[in-house]
């Protein structure tokens, strides 16, 4: 089979890497992404491995780069990506990069600290300026109420008491003092209350809000501030006021005693603020220059450090041969890539100037290799759908190639609408045509990323929905009259002698296809558009879609059973063809395959004239299991005998499924000695030939073929008939009951198709048709908003919600009803050492 139908053949290889060129060889392998390394030191702690110091050095460089990228992001500087991804730096250049990053970190930290210090000084001077400007009005106001205004008159009676108390302190000879500063506006009310309760009668508080929003000195948050001036009498009161200000984190500044001192301080502040602004601008320009220069190499440094750290992690997986002074590694590699593997080792040896080249040896192994299924941008989405159920076993047939067709088809059967299919196709086509620009943007939106990764799946679903929409003749719940109806209504009027009075007196009229000339033949493609006007349209579509769902379900399940043949033949398990495949297929076809036969027979054998008297298929199918036909008209002669024969064959398949495989394995284990020796010798001969050829696929395939034959003498495991019988009994019960439940599960194709069509019709009738019924000029004005509402509801409900529902049901049909017939999905995915697949902590932090 092609590589897309079955996982690639893998082999276990041993790499002998010279110490001087091991780093370069691993770097070449990381660029090509050929092999998956195995850990040869599982018992060694990560902190005791050989290259721990190198990994710590890489982590230190990652820390510096993280700091550098954060500073670049603060300044809104773009980090350009290199056109070509840089290779991992040579070990001799690592120290140079480390020193360069450390110097850059020291320089940036010093400049950043100076900038922060200058900004803090500038903010303090600005606050001091506002404080002097506002307190100047306090000192020269004639009264406190005139300076502050009526909005601050919270305690007028207390103010009179304070003035009286201060007058008494002045008579006692107490010294008048001032404390001024700024406080956040949210703290002002509590601050004022605390000041009054502690220093009642001995302080006078004046405050006003600053017009400009200022940043906090400690947190840097922008907030509203209030300038306050506290007048107090006595040193003890001043100490209490000082402590209260400290508790509320007030920014205190010295208060000039005279106007001359105030003017001198204001002039000094203006000069210092101007000087600080000049110095700050120069510091910011210098910082931007350093960051701009660093941003040119930042992305390359990130990639280099990431690759370098990954290389040392891989080197820690290798074992060190002291005698030969080389590193030994074991890798899983696709057989087709062995030539590229040797070429990568040769290139790495050349770069490392090794005197002895590194080389590779294939070694036999009984371990199950990982599964590798190559995919491109078109097939990767469908492969992801399959692997979401489980990674396939090694060399197991893959459902992905068939899913490319069956998955969008089953989706379209449930989502069949020409108009909705066109909208979905156009959306997917836009994503496909602009995929390069979307990939460069690195959007962090997870929902958008999911849609974009499945753009080809959406495209296929849209195309198939267009096809099924044409078959259903359904476009936004309306039918398209492309070829003209096959029903001749004029002939019906002529044959039945109907008049205008007949139309007026009868709300419903029946078109009889048996009347000559009324029905001219089947519609060329899909359903006749006249059914859109029929009252019994839903009953007709019910019968049509239900039978179609059963036919599709049986065909789909039978195809899954047939695919199991490829696994049996590939793994050389021919006994499963007779003991599993044949009874499974007979059981399915004798029961539900016969149901499909009756559906087609009834369509072909009964004409429109006989359709009313045609027997019910469901009744016949039930009577088939009861083995009776009393009271029902047979579909064809000899029907009862054929049905009894099919039921008997299906029942006989059950004991074959239940006992065939366990008894065969028991016979292989406990059979005649001569036959057993012949079987073991044959197996040993195939194994030796496989090992001489060093082809792990043959060895593995033969062992897989004998996994269910634990009775061979070469196997250390004892044969347990009870265990094998139990597993086979579970499989038999699951399959036999599953054939019934799985066939019924395909009826979701019918149910969701009708639900989608009914929702579309309800949306048309209750929204858009309301505006279309308005015949006046006002209808044009109403149509625009109504159509907008119709479009929004169509996209949100019918496309997104209904589309997601149909997607999940199609996914379930593939996972449970189709894949379980031949696909186990218990394998391990091939995870190559590839630099392009390595996660980046910088990308996860959103810094790149």
Q: If you had to describe this structure to a student in words, what would you say it looks like?
A:
A hairpin with a 4-residue loop joins strand 9 and strand 10. Strands 1, 2, 9, 10 and 11 form a 5-stranded antiparallel β-sheet that branches. A 4-stranded antiparallel β-sheet has the order 4-7-3-8, sandwiched between helices. A two-stranded antiparallel sheet has the order 5-6. It contains 27 helices and 11 strands. Helix 25 packs antiparallel against helix 26. 62% of the residues lie in helices and 7% in strands. It is an alpha+beta fold. Among the domains are: 144 residues, no CATH class; 165 residues, Alpha-Beta Plaits, CATH 3.30.70. It starts with 9 loop residues before the first strand and ends with a helix.
Primary descriptors:
Alpha-Beta Plaits; 4-stranded antiparallel beta sheet; disordered C terminus; alpha+beta; flat; 7% strand; 848 residues; 27 helices
Helix content: 55-70%
Q: Please give the CATH class of one domain.
A: Alpha Beta
User: Which parts are unreliable, with pLDDT below 50 for 5 consecutive residues or more?
Assistant: 142-173, 672-716, 843-848
Class by alpha and beta content: alpha+beta
Output the CATH topology of one domain. Answer: Alpha-Beta Plaits
């Amino acid at each position: 089979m092609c590589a897309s139908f079955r996982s690639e053949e893998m082999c276990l290889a041993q790499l002998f890497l010279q110490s001087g060129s091991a780093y370069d060889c691993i770097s070449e392998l990381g660029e090509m992404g050929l092999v998956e390394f195995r850990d040869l030191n599982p018992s060694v702690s990560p902190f005791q491995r050989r290259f721990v110091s190198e990994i710590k050095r890489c982590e230190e460089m990652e820390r510096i780069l993280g700091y550098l990228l954060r500073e670049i992001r603060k300044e809104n500087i773009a980090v350009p990506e290199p056109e070509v991804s840089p290779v991992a730096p040579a070990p001799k250049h690592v120290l140079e990069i480390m020193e360069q990053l450390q110097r850059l970190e020291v320089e940036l930290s010093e400049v950043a600290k100076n900038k922060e210090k200058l900004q803090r000084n500038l903010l303090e001077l600005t606050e001091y300026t506002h404080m002097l400007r506002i307190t100047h009005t306090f000192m020269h106001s004639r009264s406190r109420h005139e300076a502050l205004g009526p909005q601050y008159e919270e305690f007028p009676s207390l103010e009179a008491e304070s003035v009286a108390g201060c007058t008494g302190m002045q008579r006692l000879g107490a010294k008048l003092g001032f404390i001024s500063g700024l406080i956040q506006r949210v703290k002002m009310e509590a601050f004022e209350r605390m000041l009054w309760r502690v220093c009642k009668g001995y302080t006078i508080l004046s405050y006003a809000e600053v017009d400009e929003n200022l940043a906090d000195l400690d947190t840097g948050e922008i907030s509203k501030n209030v300038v306050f001036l506290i007048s107090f009498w006595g040193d003890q009161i001043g100490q209490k006021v000082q402590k209260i200000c400290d508790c509320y984190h007030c920014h205190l500044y010295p208060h000039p005693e005279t106007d001359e001192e105030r003017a001198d301080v204001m002039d000094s502040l203006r000069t210092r603020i101007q000087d600080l602004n000049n110095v700050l601008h120069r510091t910011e320009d210098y910082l931007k220059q350093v960051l701009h220069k660093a941003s040119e190499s930042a992305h390359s440094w990130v990639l280099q450090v990431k690759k370098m750290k990954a290389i040392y992690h891989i080197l820690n997986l290798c074992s060190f041969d002291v005698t030969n002074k080389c590193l030994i590694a074991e890798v899983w590699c696709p057989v087709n890539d062995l030539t590229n593997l040797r070429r990568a080792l040769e290139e790495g040896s050349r770069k490392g100037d090794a005197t002895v080249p590194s080389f590779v040896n294939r070694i036999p192994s009984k371990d199950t290799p990982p599964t590798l299924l190559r995919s491109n941008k078109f097939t990767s989405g469908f492969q992801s759908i399959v692997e979401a159920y489980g990674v396939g076993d090694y060399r197991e047939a893959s459902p992905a190639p068939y899913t490319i067709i069956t998955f969008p088809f089953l989706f379209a059967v449930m989502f069949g609408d020409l108009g909705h299919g066109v909208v979905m196709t156009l959306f997917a086509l836009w994503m496909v045509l602009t995929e390069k620009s979307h990939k460069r943007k690195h959007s962090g939106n997870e929902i958008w990323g999911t849609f974009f990764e499945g753009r080809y799946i959406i495209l296929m679903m849209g195309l198939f929905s267009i096809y099924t929409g044409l078959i259903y003749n359904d476009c936004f719940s309306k039918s398209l009259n492309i070829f003209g109806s096959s029903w001749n209504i004029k002939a019906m009027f002529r044959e039945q002698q109907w008049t205008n009075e007949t139309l007026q007196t009868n709300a419903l009229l029946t078109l009889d296809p048996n009347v000559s000339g009324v029905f001219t033949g089947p519609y060329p493609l899909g359903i006749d558009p006249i059914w859109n006007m029929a009252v019994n349209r839903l009953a007709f579509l019910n019968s049509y879609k239900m039978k179609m769902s059963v036919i599709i379900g049986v065909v789909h399940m039978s195809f899954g059973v047939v695919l199991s043949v490829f696994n049996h033949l590939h793994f050389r398990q021919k006994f499963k063809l007779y003991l599993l495949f044949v009874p499974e297929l007979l059981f399915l076809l004798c029961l539900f395959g016969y149901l499909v036969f009756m559906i087609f027979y009834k369509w072909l054998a009964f004409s429109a004239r006989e359709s009313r008297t045609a027997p019910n298929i469901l009744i016949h199918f039930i009577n088939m299991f009861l083995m009776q036909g009393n009271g029902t008209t047979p579909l064809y002669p000899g029907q009862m005998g054929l049905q009894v024969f099919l039921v008997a064959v299906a029942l006989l398949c059950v004991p074959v499924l239940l006992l065939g495989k366990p008894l065969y394995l028991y016979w292989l284990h406990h059979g005649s000695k001569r036959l057993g020796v012949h079987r073991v010798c044959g197996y040993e001969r195939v194994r030796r030939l496989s090992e001489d050829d060093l082809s792990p696929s043959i060895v593995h395939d033969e062992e897989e073929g004998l996994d269910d034959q634990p009775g061979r003498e070469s196997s250390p495991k004892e044969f347990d008939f009870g265990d094998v019988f139990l597993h086979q009994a579970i499989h038999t019960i699951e399959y036999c009951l599953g054939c019934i439940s799985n066939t019924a599960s395909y009826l979701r194709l019918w149910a969701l198709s009708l639900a989608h069509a009914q929702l579309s019709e309800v949306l048309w009738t209750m929204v858009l048709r309301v505006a279309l019924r308005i015949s006046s000029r006002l209808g044009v004005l109403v149509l625009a908003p109504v159509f907008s509402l119709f479009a929004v509801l169509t996209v949100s409900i019918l496309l997104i919600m209904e589309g997601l529902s149909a997607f999940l049901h199609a996914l379930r049909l593939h996972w449970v009803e189709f894949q379980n017939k031949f696909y186990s999905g218990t394998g391990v995915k091939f995870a190559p050492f590839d630099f392009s697949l390595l996660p980046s902590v910088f990308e996860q932090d959103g810094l790149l």
